[in-house]
Amino acid sequence: MWGLGKSLQLKIYAALIVVLTATLIISGILSYRDYRSTLFEQLGDEMKLTANRLARSSAEPMWNADQEQLAALLKSEMLSKSVAGIAIKAPDEPRFGFYKEGKKLKPFVEKNKTQL
User: Fold this and answer.
1) For residue 74, what are the CA distances in angstroms to 9, 98, 115?
2) How far apart are alpha carbons 106 and 67 in whole angstroms?
């Protein structure tokens, strides 16, 4: 009888551990999904704000063909940790912009269709 009590106690503890572990895993997965969707939503909002800010502030440098001022604007927006690259493309001109490679900013180099 002494062995039966320990065996039952062990089964109860094992079942309790399994139930608690499963509950924690499910709770962790649900929290991760919620947090991930919140982060993606914040990233989308930040990108919309960045695009609007660039659209308003880059009109004059583009109109005046002032690439130095445009480059300064793009580089200042690239300081954000959320921005990996910015490119401006006019229909009749090559692409202009920057992207991050590590911690360095690199200019876009547009390839011709024949080089691809």
Assistant:
1) 67, 7, 27
2) 15
Phi, psi of 101 (to 5 degrees): -125, 100
3-class DSSP assignment, residue 97: strand
C-alpha to C-alpha distance for 107 and 87, rounded to whole angstroms = 9
The pTM of the whole model exceeds 0.70:
no
What angle, 0 to 180 degrees and rounded to 10, lies between the N-to-C axes of helices 2-57 and 67-77? 160
- Per-10-residue mean pLDDT, the chain, length 116: 71 95 97 96 90 82 76 83 80 77 78 50
The DSSP code for 96 is E
CA 55 – CA 52 distance, rounded (Å): 5
